[in-house]
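Section 3.1: Structural characterization of target chains.
Under the original work plan, the team committed to producing a structural model for every single-chain target entering the pipeline before any wet-lab resources were allocated. The record below documents one such target. The sequence was received from the expression subgroup and is listed exactly as submitted; it comprises 269 residues.
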Amino acid sequence: MSLEFAESRDGLIFEKEYNLNTKPLEIDLLVIKKEPSVRIGNEIGAFFKGHNILEYKSPEDHLDIDAFYKAQAYASLYKSYGRTVDGIKADDITVSLLREARPDGLFRYFAKHGYSVSGSCRGIYSVEGNVLFPTQIVVTGELDKTEHVWLGALSERLGEQDLKGLLERIQQLSGKADRELADSVLEVSIGANRQAVEELKGDVAMCQALMEIMEPQLILRDKEKVEEGEFKALYGLVCDGLITIESAAVRKNLTVDEFQMKLHELNII
């Protein structure tokens, strides 16, 4: 979403984790706070207000009426946990549900129970009726792929041209933070679309672009594997009684506590 709203990002605050209770709720929830003066050109954010609750549903997740009400409940909890009584106004909150496929079952429920669903833009549906907050359902698979490259890339049905479009867009990015975000999107896309990657192998230029983009991550992974191997070897020597844990820590320029903490981080002990 940071990439999706890049042109308006300076006036937005992205809160990737938000505890709605003393025990964190395990949900794919994003809160985007927007200053009143900020105008978002992106059609998904056109109806945003001050506090915007977004929930992304993976292709395997159902988006039924219970999931719809659950999102409304999250928004209600968010409103109720303001710093003061009514500190967050109900009319300053919006809810967005994002899913790749159109939730036809949910739309049939809406039609049967008096909700109104309207689509001002392709893939974006506003829901009116028995809702607590302005709500939209974004069907990412119906969005214009050239306008919404990042959301469109979160799919298991990308073709060769889709992947090429994603690579070309990534090559246009210059900022380090944006490139890191885009690399994460690319990694997900590659993992979910092996067939498209195979088709891409016939395009030498695109293959070269893919390797250039992925090379820093591959180098980092190789370094991490080497480091893990070194720690495993040293810990093995300690377990065999061949060296002390103090000497093992010294070899890595760490204290004993730091060495043991690293073993835990690497799931060696």
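The radius of gyration is 23 Å.
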